[in-house]
Specification:
Length: 121
């Protein structure tokens, strides 16, 4: 069984910073891409940033230059450093990873439970 657990969500003023962390645990054989998504009230879930196992990154245009994604392959963690936060960054942030687990055929996407980020103006 595989679990993703996020942490780091909080209430912060506009212009401030937060760091989200996610750790994957369980019967993991391998992890390919890891990423962060977010969902604001009344909106669809959207990709914020992703990182491949080789370190390649991809960002939503709205966060480029402000957010940085990083991962530790040995620890099965992925972090999202968020700087210069704006009220429009307010959302529930979800960790996602493509994981090959024991007794499961092929890589499958797993999701965390989400962590709330609120940016006040």
């Amino acid at each position: 069984q595989v679990q993703l657990v996020e942490s780091g969500g909080d209430l912060v003023q506009a212009g401030g910073s937060l760091k989200l962390s996610c750790v994957a645990s369980g019967s993991i054989i391998s992890i390919n891409a890891m990423g962060w998504y977010r969902q604001a009230p009344g909106k669809q879930r959207e990709l914020v940033a992703a990182v491949t196992s080789g370190g390649g990154t991809n960002y939503a245009d709205s966060v480029k230059g402000r957010f940085t994604i990083s991962r530790d392959n040995a620890k099965h963690t992925v972090d999202l450093q968020m700087n210069s936060l704006k009220p429009e960054d307010t959302a529930v942030y979800y960790c996602n990873a493509g994981i090959l687990a024991m007794a499961v055929a092929g890589f499958r996407p797993y999701w965390g439970q989400g962590t709330q980020v609120v940016v006040s103006s």
